[in-house]
Amino acid sequence: MTNHFAWLPERDSFAFESSITKASATDIATVGELWVATAYDDLRRAGPDRATQVRWILSRYVNPWFGPQTSTIGEVTYFMVHAWLMRLAGRPLVDTRAGGLGSGGVVQPVGLSQSVIADALWTLRGVLGFARATGIVPPGFDPTEGLVAPAPDPAHARTKPPSCAPRPLSMGECARIASHLHPVHQLALWLQRVMGLRISEAFGVLVDDVIDYGDTGLLQVRGQGGRSFRVREPDGEVATVWHTEQLKTAAAHRALVIPGRMLELLRVAIDAFHTDPDTGDTHVDARLIPGLRAADQGGQLAFRQAFARAAGAEGLSSSDLGFRVTPHLLRKSIATDIAWHAGIADTVRRCFMGHRAADDVYGRVYTLDHPELAPMADVAAAIDAMIEEAIGTLLVPTAQRVHWAHTHPNWQRGEDMRRAVDAAGWTLEPGTDQDPLCDASRVATELGSAPTTARRWMREGTFSCFTTVEHGRPRRRVRLSEVWSLRDRRAERILLPELAIELGARYHELYQEARRLGLRLEQHSTSRLFDISPDEAQQLRKEHERVRCLHARAIKVSSAARELNRAVSTVGLMIKRGELALDPETDGSGARFVTSNSVEAVLTAMWGTGSASHVEGVTLPLAAVIRFTGRSRTELMDLVHAGTLEQVPGRQRCELTMASLKSWLASTA
Asked: Which domain holds residue 335?
């Protein structure tokens, strides 16, 4: 008989099988190590870094608690696990069950976060599952059943809960943070804030991953870097590397269309840091974000520290905002921007952020990238518009310089790189006697504004400020030439109330017209009144004249209905039949207008035709009679009092009978 299982290894080849049969091998530490070796080392579950993390959880949280209380894993009880979770959460628990909660009586608080506790509980369940599968414990043995990871008490939590709801960092706030960073760290910041990369993905981008087509560009996300990674080589050996092509998930491998202003930034960075000025050759195999101590090594830790210092200097740190502010918030911010941007499909949003299109089989397996990346181009255009509206450019001027280690290959080229970033306006030299640097007090003096207003303008990006360090503290500064430029621009602007007086219009109507036209309204530094530029003022003049002419030649449909003493729906039918002429224009209300001539023609037809019996019950509003006859209200009311005209009693508005009007007109003919 043929043995179909001859290819399987002999039972003796499973080294762990013989070991777990011994009583000494069924303690929780040994079983846990066997589980990790089987699942992570043999079956290659996840990567070596995850295996190291699981081993650390076992040695740090699981074994020290259950090891002293049990000799075999089968002795673990529900109450042991319950007390263990309470201890990790930092919740004191008094032992009221003999031997049930472990030794020590009152459990001392630890205060781990709920996510860490959940990972520890997951690891324990993995060990117990392995014990059931190998027969160490009977089937169904699960002392963790019904237990969940608890949240720590705020008094004992290592990480304090946020005091307010997290929110994204705006483009303007990121530009303020970038002003404290040198160009290399700015490059890392914008790759996360604009392209939505994870921090390891940002430091894993190579120069060759940026494909420049001239008018557009592509960014390939296919590696990680910035720290050491433990990876498995093709032969199964574990090695430590500084760059790996293994991403967090399979969906993380993606190609993104680069927004125009991001492409401009990348061109400057590649030209400055990766292009030989003598030969013009580009080092395509180099990491896009160069290391500061070594060419393609490290960088994440230094960037995290610089980001934290810059956020604190701008009042945007975790303690300032009340929630955790880290580089990962940059990725969350762009995800929020495109999530609430109309016209971008949910599938496109997920693919842009490096997630699966959906959780079902269709999304996981059958949904591939668009062959022409057309949806990604729409995302890039939307992000580019956000940048233009918020800050204009990603090349945020900074006084911070890049300092290379003396052993770094770029140290010899430091001067060439400095000239390249200076030429792009990315870095600024200190002020001169002819163009000094100004603080908020000097800016307020030059503009005739309050110092608080000057500080707000410098903080919000009205000026291209950069940060200097004076006496160990960061200070915002702006060049005097830029202050004068703003002063000259504002001198030409016109206050909105003054323009309203010129046009004989009401202020709020002119304000609404300006908003409808999309004009940028700014508040004057001292009066706080809105002002506009001469070109914008001319646009308002034209719009106001257009609306004035419209009201001179036409009236709203609702007004026509009142004058004709008809329902609005009836007037609509008259427009369809051609009895009333519809004007093609409208005002800020968006209402429909009909020409005054067509309304008067209908009134003339009503007055000049029809028998006495036909007009017996017809009435007209006083306003329509004034328009048609040209008589004033006083004259017409005198005729009413004299009995010549008949007013309809009991009406809120004054209405005259058509019969009396026809009789009066006939007598005056």
From this structure: 171-221+251-390
